[in-house]
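Open question from group meeting: does this chain pack into something compact, or does most of it stay loose? Before anyone orders reagents, we agreed to write out a predicted structure and look at it together. Recording both the input and the output here so the notebook holds the full record.
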Amino acid sequence: MMTKSKMGAGEQERLMLSDNFLMEKVRYILNSPSQREEYRGLNSNDSKVNFFLNHFIMNDYAIRQMKNLYLSSEHRVMVFLEMVEEIIHEIDKDN
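Structure tokens returned:
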């Protein structure tokens, strides 16, 4: 896999757009208080990841992006879950 420093500007921009698209879907899901509570009730990392993979809001493109960007290693899964927690914290703070 190419590192960001070895990627061209176009590849980096495409990666950022994919990430933004995916995280906006995640934010949309988590804007619902009932969905945040359901997510908070999950105990394992696998169940938290599956919450998003199986959510009706997630289309095939978003699922592929999630798998490519965040599910290729345990470290990336943890990065994704930390980002989700940050989104939840932001939403809770705004409400």
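Observations to bring back to the group:
Confidence is low (pLDDT under 50) at residues 1-5.
The longest helix spans residues 9-30.
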